[in-house]
């Protein structure tokens, strides 16, 4: 008998929740575990689920099973045909796990895995009737003839209304439909990341690192790319802020998310030019459509910086208005000066306040949702990054740390930045028919960024950089999904932006005022049959940018047009229920951003002078990404390899020069362009040694070369690996979390660095972290407790991807206490 010849499912008696899917070699069984009785009961399933019968003696049960196995094997030993299939939702193509499949004539069945796949083997030729059932969905019956080949088909299940009060029904949320490499942060892993900014949270995913400015500002990096090459989707709306700066962190509160998904491929066809390096989807849970009430409270405290973080979320559904649901969320965060081993970093405090609300209605035909979020933060910029003269700058770089030890305070002084981001969304979908759905989405965003420098007198209270960015987005698209193998999306996307410098700063604007319009049209089609998925798409974008700025009382304007096609072809194949391979080849492009074209002066938040080039061309790339994934009973493995040549790659290069002014001495950077080759791989794996003891490992290697002169680019992540072991204290009969984890982060020295840099790359480092998590039930409510110790040994280190590594070491030991209470 081969593994996965027949399917069975393990259930927890106390909660009727499936624990796992396995395989045995007999007629279809449901295999039940009973913790209280300490015995195993077998349930034989024929055309309908038979009455339960128990075999109290485990040895006797095994003997009976062996007899059945041998009998069935002898009966079907000459039958080698099989049925393979995939089960997905009709509405959004999301796979359905734990659907029940039954072939009456063969008295054989299966249960779909997490990817919606199932296999039934060793069948004889003949006519069969296949039945598929899943709670809350219409039963599917398929009659077919099995001759000499494997029968393979994709089944799309349609939802139906059920009057079950114990079933929680949620509203509409589109699935992530892509054949490229996808990783997600959710559940226990997302809960453990609470209190961190978006960039730090995503470092838990292999292939994702951060580009930071100090300890409070971190931008996610995917396969060596960040900023305008990575698109962040906030509840379905592309986040539009002043994200071109290294110290411009995403204006988003991770507490919004029920799941954070990272798409590692070039996704310009699906999302537009800014997605050439990947996409990050920050999605809240779908709104409830029935009577429902749930409140979650998060309290987080940290020793380093004296950080306190409070978050409160309430989700509800109305009984009187079926289909109407709402969510209200708010969070506040406050921290003081960060401490490196041995000293405090002056002026590194943070203050943050975030709010969001959603209201939605969903029925069988129509869905409408309104959403609003406010993000407001004020954070200090390390005092020692702003030096008085050239010798001070050279001395602190040589010293590698501030000359004074500083002190702890919550006060935030200049230099600092203050950011307020408003986002509003209105979305609706309507089912024209069973197979066709039309979608409309409008988004409005206002991003107000102020950066304050050290200045004399009244000017110290005025922002040196004061920008307002207005963005309107409009999406109109149709989805078609059919009961056969085809589905697709066709749409139009419109983006309008206006960016303005607020007068009164007393400083020549770093970037000009500009207006931008982008129109995109795209089409994507997907073919799914059994274990195979093939997807292709094409898109055309046109962009116009108008700029204007006064320099030395002279008005300078520019009118620029950019246009290009992008396309992709991808496939995913389930080699077996445990093994999946996917490959995606896509073209991508990105027009230069206004800052890359026209920056001219001091960028206060970055403590650097930046010089743009108005003659820059659009970036054009071809990314080929492949992923192999294995999910066994105790083992999970995934390996991702990619190749990404980029023509006219734009990068910010340190010139090695300094700029001296009345406001201090600053390093000078310039935007350059060259042909590039990015390549590398990510790996991740976990293994359960015993029911109590498990381990994991993950890592990434990124290579990026200037193919024009065979040199290296600045600010490319160095090789890194993260491994850890966990021990669970929970009893076999107790499903609640109760475990301790020891982990180690290893980061190599970046030996692939450009010749011109202000200081050599810092040495390699290793950090140890410790975490303990425990779940406690309080009546019908649930409390999760977490204790984390980061940098256990208070190691002194610098990360190459931190732009303030020239002036200071990174954060020292940090002890965090996290409480999550759901009621």
From TrEMBL:
Compartments where found: Cell outer membrane
Regions that span the bilayer: 56-75
Keyword Metal-binding: no
Main location group: membrane
InterPro entries found in the cross-reference section: Beta-barrel_TonB, Beta-barrel_TonB_sf, CarboxyPept-like_regulatory, Plug_dom, Plug_dom_sf, TonB-dep_rcpt-like
Record keywords, A-Z: Cell outer membrane, Membrane, Receptor, Signal, TonB box, Transmembrane, Transmembrane beta strand, Transmembrane helix, Transport
Segments forming domain TonB-dependent receptor plug: 176-279
The UniProt record lists the keyword Ribonucleoprotein: no
Start and end residues of each TonB-dependent receptor-like beta-barrel domain: 413-792
Bilayer topology term: Multi-pass membrane protein
Pfam family, one: CarbopepD_reg_2
Family statement: Belongs to the TonB-dependent receptor family.
PANTHER family noted in UniProt: HEMOGLOBIN AND HEMOGLOBIN-HAPTOGLOBIN-BINDING PROTEIN 1-RELATED, TONB-DEPENDENT OUTER MEMBRANE RECEPTOR
Protein name: Iron complex outermembrane recepter protein
Species per Swiss-Prot/TrEMBL record: Algoriphagus winogradskyi
């Amino acid at each position: 008998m081969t593994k996965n010849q027949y399917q069975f499912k393990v259930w927890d008696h106390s909660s009727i929740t499936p624990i796992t899917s396995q395989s045995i070699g007999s007629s279809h069984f449901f295999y039940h575990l009973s913790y209280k009785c300490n015995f195993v009961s077998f349930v034989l399933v024929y055309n309908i689920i038979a009455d339960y019968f128990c075999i109290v003696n485990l040895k006797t049960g095994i003997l009976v099973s062996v007899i059945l196995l041998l009998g069935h094997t002898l009966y079907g030993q000459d039958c080698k045909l099989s049925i393979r299939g995939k089960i997905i939702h009709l509405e959004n193509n999301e796979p359905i796990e734990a659907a029940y499949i039954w072939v009456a004539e063969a008295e054989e069945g299966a249960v779909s895995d997490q990817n919606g796949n199932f296999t039934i083997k060793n069948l004889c030729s003949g006519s069969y009737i296949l039945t598929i059932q899943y709670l809350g969905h219409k039963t599917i019956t398929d009659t077919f003839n099995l001759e000499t080949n494997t029968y393979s088909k994709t089944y799309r299940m349609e939802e139906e209304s059920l009057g079950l009060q114990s079933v929680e029904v949620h509203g509409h949320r589109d699935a992530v439909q892509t054949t490229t490499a996808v990783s997600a942060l959710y559940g226990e892993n997302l809960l453990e990341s609470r209190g961190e900014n978006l960039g730090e949270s995503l470092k838990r995913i292999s292939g994702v690192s951060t580009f930071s400015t100090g300890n409070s500002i971190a931008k996610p990096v995917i396969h060596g790319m960040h900023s305008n090459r990575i698109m962040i989707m906030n509840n379905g709306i592309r986040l539009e802020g002043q994200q071109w700066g290294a110290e411009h962190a995403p204006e988003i509160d991770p507490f919004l998310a029920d799941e954070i998904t990272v798409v590692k491929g070039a996704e310009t066809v699906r999302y537009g030019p800014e997605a050439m390096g990947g996409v990050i989807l920050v999605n809240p849970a779908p709104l409830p459509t029935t009577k429902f009430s749930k409140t979650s409270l998060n309290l987080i405290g940290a020793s380093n910086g004296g950080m306190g973080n409070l978050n409160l979320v309430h989700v509800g559904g109305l009984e009187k208005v079926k289909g109407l649901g709402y969510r209200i969320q708010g969070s506040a965060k406050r921290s003081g000066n960060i401490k490196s081993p041995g000293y405090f970093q002056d002026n590194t405090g943070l203050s943050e306040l975030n709010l969001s609300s959603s209201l939605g209605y969903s029925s069988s035909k129509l869905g409408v949702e309104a959403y609003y979020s406010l993000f407001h933060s004020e954070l200090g910029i390390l005092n020692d990054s702003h030096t008085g003269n050239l010798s001070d700058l050279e001395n602190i770089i040589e010293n590698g740390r501030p000359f004074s030890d500083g002190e702890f305070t919550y006060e935030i002084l200049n230099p600092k930045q203050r950011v307020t981001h408003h986002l509003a969304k209105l979305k609706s979908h309507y089912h024209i028919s069973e197979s066709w759905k039309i979608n409309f989405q409008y988004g409005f965003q206002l991003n107000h960024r102020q950066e304050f420098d050290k200045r004399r007198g009244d000017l110290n209270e005025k922002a040196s950089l004061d920008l307002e960015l207005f963005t309107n987005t409009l999406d109109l698209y149709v989805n078609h999904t059919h009961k056969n193998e085809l589905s697709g999306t066709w749409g139009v996307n419109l983006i309008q932006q206006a960016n303005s410098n607020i007068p009164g700063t007393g400083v020549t604007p770093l970037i000009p005022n500009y207006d931008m319009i982008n129109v995109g049209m795209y089409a994507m089609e997907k073919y799914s049959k059994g274990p195979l998925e093939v997807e292709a798409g094409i898109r055309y974008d046109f962009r116009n940018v108008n700029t204007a700025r006064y320099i030395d009382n002279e008005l300078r304007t520019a009118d620029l047009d950019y246009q290009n096609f992008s396309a992709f072809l991808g496939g995913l194949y389930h080699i077996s229920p445990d093994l999946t391979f996917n490959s995606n080849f896509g073209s991508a492009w990105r027009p230069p951003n206004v800052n890359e074209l026209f920056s001219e002066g001091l960028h206060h938040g970055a403590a650097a002078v930046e010089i743009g080039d108005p003659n820059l061309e659009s970036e054009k790339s071809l990314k080929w990404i492949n992923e192999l994934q294995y999910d066994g009973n105790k083992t999970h493995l995934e390996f991702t390899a990619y190749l990404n040549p980029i023509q006219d790659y734009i990068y910010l290069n340190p010139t090695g020069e300094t700029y001296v002014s009345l406001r201090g001495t600053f390093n000078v950077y310039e935007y350059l362009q060259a042909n590039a080759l990015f390549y590398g791989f990510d790996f991740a794996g976990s293994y359960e040694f015993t029911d109590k003891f498990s381990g994991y490992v993950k890592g990434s290697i990124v290579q990026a070369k200037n193919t024009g002169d065979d040199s290296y680019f600045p600010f490319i992540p160095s090789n890194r690996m993260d491994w850890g072991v966990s021990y669970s204290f929970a009893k076999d009969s107790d499903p609640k979390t109760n475990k301790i984890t020891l982990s180690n982060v290893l980061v190599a020295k970046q030996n692939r660095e450009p010749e011109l840099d202000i200081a050599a790359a810092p040495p390699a480092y290793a950090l140890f972290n410790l975490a303990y998590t425990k779940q406690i039930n309080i009546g019908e409510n649930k409390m999760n407790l977490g204790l984390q110790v980061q940098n256990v040994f208070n190691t002194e280190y610098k990360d190459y991807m931190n732009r303030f590594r020239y002036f200071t070491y990174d954060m020292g030991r940090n002890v965090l206490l996290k409480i999550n209470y759901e009621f």
